[in-house]
Every structure is written in C-alpha cells, then in structure tokens.
Amino acid sequence: MVKRNAFYAQSGGVTAVINASAAGVIQTARRHRARIGRVYAGRNGIIGALTEDLIDTGRESARSIAALRYTPGGAFGSCRYKLAGVDANRAQYERLLEVFRAHDIGYFFYNGGNDSADTCLKVAQVAENLGYPLQAILVPKTVDNDLAVTDNCPGFGSVAKYVATSMREAAFDVASMAKTSTKVFVLEVMGRHAGWITAAVGMADDAATPIPLVLLFPEIAFDEAKFLAAVDARVRAFGYCCVGVSEGLSDAQGKLLADAGTRDAFGHAQLGGVGPLLAALVKDRLKYKYHWAVADYLQRAARHLASKTDVLQAYAVGKAAVEMALDGGNAVMPAITRISDKPYRWKITQAPLSKVANVEKMLPRDYISRDGYGITAKARAYLGPLMKGEDPPPFKDGLPQYVRLKNVPVAKKLKATFVLD
Hints:
Layout: E1 4-10, H1 18-30, E2 36-42, H2 46-50, E3 54-56, H3 62-67, H4 90-102, E4 105-112, H5 114-129, E5 135-140, H6 156-177, E6 184-189, H7 196-201, E7 213-216, H8 224-238, E8 241-246, E9 259-263, E10 269-271, H9 274-286, E11 290-294, H10 296-301, H11 308-326, E12 332-340, E13 345-352, H12 377-387, E14 395-396, E15 399-400
Parallel strand pairs: 1-2, 1-4, 4-5, 6-8, 6-11, 7-8
Antiparallel strand pairs: 2-3, 9-10, 12-13, 14-15
C-alpha cells in the first residue's frame, strides 16, 4: 500500500471533548505508520488548508497528544468559514486539492457538524471528479446534537451534564432566596433549531430533587400568555420557578424572538439573547423579581465537568475515522449506534455522508411533555446515559491543567497564495 499523509481540521463551534477526537485521530494514525505518514492539522480549520497554513502534529510529544483528551477548545484552531457550492466557487475546491497534492495528503478528516458534513461530502465528490485519490471522513461533533443517523453527537453529553448541573445548583440558590428576593430564574442555552440542550436542562429535576421548571423548546412555538401562566402557577405553588430556554425560541410565525438582524459565516441568524428578554417579560407582566444567565461558551467549554460517556465516544469516533479510511471508506462518518438503554451499550457504525449532510435531527415531539413545558420519561431514558460518568482533567493548585500545543508550521510548497472571500 502507498503511504500517504493525513489532514485533520476542526470546524465550527468547539466542544469540551473535540480535542479527544483529535487525540483519537492522531494516536490511531501514529499506530499505522506503514500506511499513514505525517498527520497535518489545519490552523484555524479549513482556512488552514486553503491558505496552506498547516501544522505538523508529528512535532508534538506523545504526552501532549494524550493530554488533548482532557483539554477543551480547539487545539489547532477552528473557524466558521463556509465553502460555497462547487458550481459557485470551484476554485476553492481546486485550491484544497492543490494543497493536498503538494503535501501528498490522501486522508481528509474533518471534525465538525452539519455544515462540515456538507463540506466533507463536496470535497470527496470534487476529488473523485478530478481524479485525485482522497478519502474524506467526517468526524462528528456538535453540542446541538442534531446530526442525522448517529444516535448522539460527541460534545452534547458534556453540555447536557453542564446545563442540568447548573440549573440544579441555581435552583437551590433561588429556592433559598425566594421568600424575600428572586422568584424566577431564566437560563438560556444553545440550540438554534433543535431543543436537545433545553431538554437536558430538564434532567435537573427528578423525583429526588424536584424543581418547578418551565422549558421552552424551539420545536414548540412560544405563546406568551401560556408561558406567563405556567410561570405564575409554579411561583404560587412552590414559591419560585426556573426557566430553561433555547436561544432559538420562535413565535407562531416562525420568527426568532432574539434575532439580532445579522448573520454569521454560515448564514445563520445571530441571536441576541432570549434569556434577558423573557426575564424582562416576567418582571413587566408578573412583577416577580428575577435573575437570568446565558450559559454561552461556558456550557461547551466546561471540560472539568465533562461526561465520561461523551469523552469515550469522542475519542472513539476519531479512532474509527482513521480505521474506516484505512479500510477504504470515503464520504462516510463514524456514527454512534445505541444498542440498549439499561445497561447502556453502544457501538460505532458507518454512515454515508449523503444521509447526513444538510439533514437536521430535531427533538422528537414525544420527548416533550404534553403541555410543551417539560420532558417525558422517554427523553430521560435517552438523555441519562449520555451524561453519566466523570472524567476530570488533572488539577494543580486547585485549577485544571490543560495542554497548549506547539503547533509548529509546515513549510509551504506553493508559490501562489489564496485570498479568502
């Protein structure tokens, strides 16, 4: 077999465990030196490939690569940069292959979510059409948990654990102050279209730790009067109420409540903060004292509270991506397949990117309670195993210890430069 180099890149929003996937890719490739030469990483994701700004991961020690398992963020840098359609900007794809050809890259491992699946598939198709031998594998990642085919997405379990923990702890705080102070607490979480993270907030409440919760999902159109009535009823019954809301909450006309009127690089609406909006509504209409918080980057960066299940799965998909490539796989993704809930068992299977790209997996309606403000037993059975287990990073002097790689650049071989749009 011809020995060829590999390219790995991180794309989109990072997670608490995306670097565990990177470790899975790099460590597995190092165990197959007869087939895979060097593993290059793109500095700042796919931009690194377009600008020939490559990182030589071979310059990192085995200890540093192993430490990625415990490190949040994107070790090589990520980006929100959407490649246009092939017909719209064929030059982008030709440039990618030009860089790959110059550095003898035959394996393309793209660590991302929905938009990345589409990009990975297009790169595979263009390479085939132009006769360039390349195996493109998507390494799944997204805190939104909305990738098709796979049971769940690496990154989600840790976010789920963080938001459920945060809401439970905040609820104890609010309950202790509710008699004379705050009666309503609002926690805004990520989730543009799919309410998986909002559902996870619901795990804060259980039989042993009851919490008067109201959950607002992007799948359920917001009804102001019903929402206020639900909050008021809980405050009257329990003395306080906690609200978990998705950033992508929309009204009956489909308009995002927090649409700031701008768009990101992928064309998605930039959301302006639905949490404070709801809190102000509670104050104006119900006259209750409130507090609100936006989990924002904290929920996806909290490696100290990562789910062990999530860490194991993130590493597993990175490892499987390399193995699939060595087995001849192309335009595919390692997917997590659930075998059983109790005991929780799972395995890695292979999914074609044609069934993943541009498909968004929404929260099923039967995971949401009939009144639209809570989660069902079916949702709890799904969510529970993904949040289980602890895998803390090493601590020193009371703080977690994370690795920062050297990220040594690879010498450029092309004279022509590429100007990003």
